[in-house]
């Protein structure tokens, strides 16, 4: 159990366009989802934490108007990269947890490789 | 900032045990230690987690010191497929609030050598 599906796995878009990435928890309800991005040879950088039905909490330095996060249900969160630029090219990874207790592992999607040309 | 520190890299001979250390000296009483690994261009894979007792599953064992300030992940018989970056993390929660963060440090890059 505890499968998180992320879609698409790869996307190439032109500069100035927007891209939506979906993150779904397939066999559990996720009270919280986290969005990360990862540049080559670096660790995961937390972008934002989202709870179902409420606004996401963004990390310092992450533009909330550029990276729109919608956690519309207990099984779906989306990240939209608006007006993408080449510097937004990165590996984006979502994760989900069942509850807000300490004893609740994060379950990760397989990531989305975004390339902006 | 991450609540954990790990050595940046380690080597291990194939078939031998890989022991990956992690320091989490500021861990609080309710916080669990989680271990994940990431193979290139994939999402992190859950390995194991624990609070204060040692834990074992089909993938690994987790040894947590009595003072809980450090832990060791043990892969009992490392194979080439265990080559990955291993992350030790602590979930930063404030109960009763919406504060909930999981910050990753750089992890340990484990190379299993034939």
Reconstruct the topology from this structure.
The complex is a heterodimer of chains A (117) and B (114).
Chain A: E1 4-7, E2 10-13, E3 19-25, E4 32-38, E5 45-51, E6 57-58, E7 67-73, E8 76-81, E9 90-97, E10 107-108, E11 112-116
Parallel strand pairs in A: 2-11
Antiparallel strand pairs in A: 1-3, 3-8, 4-5, 4-9, 5-6, 7-8, 9-10, 9-11
Chain B: E1 9-13, E2 18-23, E3 33-38, E4 45-50, E5 55-56, E6 61-64, E7 70-75, E8 84-90, E9 92-93, E10 100-101, E11 108-113
Parallel strand pairs in B: 1-11
Antiparallel strand pairs in B: 2-7, 3-4, 3-8, 5-6, 6-7, 8-11, 9-10
What does this structure look like?
The complex is a heterodimer of chains A (117) and B (114). Chain A is built from no helices and eleven strands. Chain A is mainly β and 117 residues long. Helix content of chain A is 0%, strand content 50%. In chain A, the strands form two sheets. In chain A, strands 2, 4, 5, 6, 9, 10 and 11 form a seven-stranded mixed β-sheet that branches. Chain A has strands at 4-7, 10-13, 19-25, 32-38, 45-51, 57-58, 67-73, 76-81, 90-97, 107-108, 112-116. In chain B, strand 3 and strand 4 (45-50) form a beta hairpin. Chain B is an all-beta fold and 114 residues long. The mean pLDDT of chain B is 94. In chain B, the strands form three sheets. Chain B has a five-stranded mixed β-sheet with strand order 1-11-8-3-4, with no helix packed on it. A four-stranded antiparallel β-sheet of chain B has the order 2-7-6-5, with no helix packed on it. Helices cover 0% and strands 46% of the residues of chain B.
Structural class of chain B: mainly beta
Structural class computed from helices and strand pairing of chain A: mainly beta
Q: Let me know the number of strands of chain B.
A: 11
Low-confidence stretches of chain B: none
Spans of chain A with pLDDT under 50 lasting ≥5 residues?
none
Structural shape of chain A: globular
For the largest interface, the chains and their residue counts are: A-B, 30 and 28 residues
Radius of gyration of chain A using CA atoms only: 13 Å
Q: What letter string, H or E per element, gives the SSE order of chain B?
A: EEEEEEEEEEE
Percent in helix of chain A: under 10%
